[in-house]
Design goal:
Layout: H1 2-23, H2 31-43, H3 56-83
Helix pairs in contact: 1-2, 1-3
């Protein structure tokens, strides 16, 4: 049960870290940024572009913030079922 919630937390952390890095204007050519981006984009699943907004900062918050919340919720639900 803790492993499942831990995995969900790690996925959510990656999403949030990428979101913060983009909003803070991190160097897109940096190796660490590229690594986090390569992890965050596939983990965002279907969220990017789901809600079209004109503000790019709001788009990042919606896309990756909702993906982070999704991973926390899904991991919690799966952990509950696994505990039964």
């Amino acid at each position: 049960m803790r492993v499942i919630t831990g995995i969900g937390a790690v996925f959510a952390f990656i999403e949030l870290l990428y979101m913060v890095m983009v909003l803070a204007g991190a160097n897109a050519g940096n190796g660490f940024f590229i690594f986090i981006q390569a992890l965050a984009r596939p983990l965002a699943l279907f969220w990017p572009g789901l809600f079209p907004v004109s503000d790019p900062n709001l788009a990042v918050i919606l896309d990756y913030g909702l993906a982070a919340a999704f991973w926390v919720i899904v991991a919690g639900v799966i952990a509950r079922f696994a505990a039964r």
